[in-house]
Structure prediction request, 243 residues.
Amino acid sequence: MVRFCTSLILLSCLSFSVAFAQDDTIRIFYDENWKEIADPASAAFRRVAFNNDNGFWQAMDYYRTGQLQMKGVFLDKDLKKRQGPFEFYYEDGKIQSRAMYMNGSQVDDEITYYKNGQVDSHLRYDNSGKQIDAKYYREDGSKSLFVNAEFPGGMTEMYRFIGEKVVYPKSLPRRGIEGRVFISFSVDTNGNLVNIFVFGSPHESMSKEAIRVVKAMPKWKPAQRDQVPLSIKYNLPISFTLN
Prediction:
């Protein structure tokens, strides 16, 4: 009788462990536009993520066919902060892009490829997430002509605009709080600033002010690749300095 009870308890423990492992796995389904949906049968893509041995979240995205579309690691269960290498694949299994992240910020090299294996673009970022170099190529391997996005009037006018618009949050100067807010946004093909977010800041009030100032900016001149408008990501530090 004692042995029977012990086996029963052990079986219960094993069942609990299996159930816990299943609860620790995230499954998300998306439509063709990567909008989250509830119906797995209608999904064009699906994501599976689980907590790995380091406490991070290993994620893999799949096409409807079951072919791997992306693999990478997130720091958080919300799957927002990327960490380490990320790889994306075409539906035939060929590599589409490789990039590196640190604490949610893009660093080092990002390389994208055409389906024929030729490099499409090669972008480089420093450890703060600022893009420091960009090279673009045509499908035959020749270099594309790239013109970066630009604030109206150039960098000098942009920093003049920031200097005139930034308002130091009232409670911070007397507390001696200063520093730089690192803000990221994309300049779309019409020159609009979209996907604005902060990826480094000494204080929440400074983050809110930096976002307000960027949102108040006029339209930029969009980037161009071979004379065709191109949407690009832009990282900008905004300083809050006490005199």
The helical segments are 2-23, 155-165, 204-215. Confidence is low (pLDDT under 50) at residues 1-22. The two ends are 81 Å apart (CA to CA).
